[in-house]
Design a protein that fits this description.
9% of the residues lie in helices and 41% in strands. By secondary structure, the chain is mainly β. It has a single domain, classed as Metal Binding Protein, Guanine Nucleotide Exchange Factor, Chain A, CATH 2.170.150.
Length: 117
């Protein structure tokens, strides 16, 4: 099991396996958040602890969650709960967890294609 938490520790995330690949997206929100995303099925992610605030923008299909205390972005979840993918901010995990993960650069600002193929 791999764990991560926001800065104050109020929100804790757990996933069964360390990510082997993470996404560095340059879209308007991800580049401002400075996150690295790992994708999991919602059933693979456990979120415990304090409350999160939700931010939605544009087409309002994603909920971006952040700790209500310290403000760290923890994850995103689809508004449509039948979707089988969510993003976890792996920057909340210990650096050694990410040491073996491939970082993919996604051009979310323009083409929605990976820049490192």
């Amino acid at each position: 099991m791999v764990e991560g938490s926001c800065h104050c520790g109020a929100v804790r995330l757990q996933v069964d396996d360390a990510p082997t690949e993470v996404t560095d997206c340059n879209c308007s929100i991800c580049r401002r958040y400075g996150v690295l995303w790992a994708y999991y099925a919602p059933g693979q992610v456990r979120i415990a602890g304090g409350a999160t605030d939700i931010y939605m923008w544009s087409d309002r299909t994603l909920e971006f969650h952040r700790c209500a205390v310290c403000g760290c972005v923890t994850h995103w979840a689809p508004v449509d709960k039948t979707q089988e993918r969510m993003g976890v901010n792996v920057r909340l995990m210990e650096p050694q967890v990410l040491a073996g993960a491939r970082v993919r650069r996604l051009d979310g600002a323009d083409t929605w294609e990976f820049l490192d193929d």
